[in-house]
Amino acid sequence: MDSPQILVIDDSPTILKMVECHLSQAGYRVATASNADAGVDAAEAIRPDLILLDHQLPGTTGDEVCRRLLAGESTRHIPVVISSAMRNRAFANYTELPNVVDQIPKPFTPDLLRTGVANALQVGAMVVRAQNTGCAMPEVVDEVKDSLLEGQTSAFPIRSVIDFLNNNACSGRLTLELEKDRIRFTLSGGRIQAVCSPTISPDRLFDLVPPELAELAPLLAATLGERLDPSMSGLVRMLERSLTDPRRLRALLRCQSAILSHWALTAGPGKFSFEADAAVPPMFQAFPLQMSLPALAVEGVRRCDPAGDADASAPAVFARQAPRGGNLDRTGLSPAEMKAYALFDGSMPLAEVAAQAGLPVGAAADVARGLELAGLVERRAAPSGASILVLDDDPEASRAIQSALGPGGRGCQVKAVRDRVGAQLLLRRQRFDLVIVALDRPDHEAFVRTCRELSPESCRFVGIAGLTDEEELNRLDAMGLDGILHRPISEPDLVATVDHLLRAPEAVACG
């Protein structure tokens, strides 16, 4: 992660050199400008984390520069620290400017400079947003608000924390701190009711809002934060009365929440804390989400990172994971998305899942990747191309194996024979990754030893037998097989056994 960048606007070459020297040594990136025009241009170009601004500049003053910064959409949220030798006489000009967060009197020592910059970086963005939106500022930075649960996402992924809270029907606000961003999930009744951020600017979301909601996108300035002041409540009441179709506003709130959820699920490590019984933002009180994390994750992928090349996604294979807590909340997933989830069995390629679910391949890929972020599916490498030899005189068993593992199933090359001579000829001519052989009688053991002599060391052996007693199981265990299938053969057991053996590190790489 890049270190914070400081823009210094001062007409004194000595001050510029001194500030650049000491802040660079403290680990900051420093840009400089010697006049107001150059400073405003630099602020628009680099969007620094903080501006250190001299009050007296050639032809103008720092308060005029602050007003120019406030007028620019890309610079209005940048915190500014004023430095001046005039002290209180100068600082009185800045009391009404919301982007000014602190002051440093000249002349300043290196320690005062570093401390002032560090403090301003810590609270600057919070102060600017509070003054622009009317949000309340905490009396103490990082104050503890009776957190019932807190920790690091490096140890407890945010999806697991949300699952735990929802499975236990906890109500409150979960705050996720990620670098400069703060994302908050309001939970109630085992579902997500709101997702907001008091630190993220609406312009970061505008390009991600779908065209059909672009007309409502300006409302993000009100819905993104957590304003609880009377003006916000009045706006909510006005919208409730004036909207002929509230579904579009609900769609905007869902879109906002999906984007923020995607950023939360894909971000690097951060901190989380949960406060019980926190107030729901007014807009979401009127229009609660009532959604599950998987649904938000799927839509988040669709908005932020949709599948590109559908052909590249078509062969991918996904498998369902057991829901944490034993209960999959389906709220917000469409019937087609739920059908796709049910079809993710670890064997079917994405193209076939899409066809059976009635979705385009790209849409099915978005569903898979969203559910993967939510921890409900995992990507697997299909064992396609693996060569398998089956020796069994039961035609029904052979057909079942061919159906499950052959081109119409797992995509493997399956050859089935009913006699030992044919099996030995094939083993001499071809290299197999797996041999499935009937072992219903004790005299079959010698044949297995012969097959092993004709096969490479990497070849795996699975026996088929109708196990009736413990002595029979002990006989098969003594043969050192890689797996055993019980008659009648169960397709899930067959697929699971083959997947395990062909994906094992020591097995032959397939596909």
From TrEMBL:
Keywords from the named record: Phosphoprotein
Domain Response regulatory residue range list: 5-121, 387-502
GO biological process assignments: phosphorelay signal transduction system
Domain of life: Bacteria
Residues with 4-aspartylphosphate modification: D54
Signal sequence, renumbered to the chain: none
Coiled coil regions, renumbered to chain: none
InterPro entries for the chain: Bact_response_regulator (IPR050595), CheY-like_superfamily (IPR011006), PatA-like_N (IPR025497), Sig_transdc_resp-reg_receiver (IPR001789)
PANTHER family: RESPONSE REGULATORY DOMAIN-CONTAINING PROTEIN, STRESS RESPONSE REGULATOR PROTEIN 1
Name of the protein: Alkaline phosphatase synthesis transcriptional regulatory protein PhoP
Organism (species): Tautonia plasticadhaerens
